[in-house]
Amino acid sequence: MPASKQQLYATDLEIGAQVAEREITLDMAAFLNFSALTGDRHPIHYDASYAHDKGFRGPVAHGLLLLALSALGATDLSEQLHDSMVAMTSAQARFLRPVIAGDRLKLTYTVAAVEPRTAGVSLVSFDVELHAIQADSDPGNQPKSTFRLQFLLKDHIDQSHAPEH
To answer: Where do the TM regions start and end (predicted)?
Structure first.
């Protein structure tokens, strides 16, 4: 079994620090799987001719699919939060520009806030920006979507369960 990663707690996270990133290509299979899972059958998401007729260069990603891609659990950071994670409390999304089938995307995760709540627990906010990697399809490299994910994290290791040395 691989060695576990160093665990992080709310007090270890610095506001403004980029703590994770990931890349993914959204292909038609992802669009169709999302449609099958949710029951969303709007043709803008899977019919290239329909999307072209509406002025897009191809099928447009469903906003909820993009939000799902922002899952913190899909990043390497997730392994470092196993011991501190209490709960996910909210997700907010802004969809700024369309994401088209075949786009290669980069998501970056930045610590936005660490707010103490109850004894030993803080509300931690992560801002996530989703960019298309293809420079020719995204002038100025403006984000396609932005998300704010909020979690309750323990402030520090629970000493009552810490291993003895």
So the answer is: none
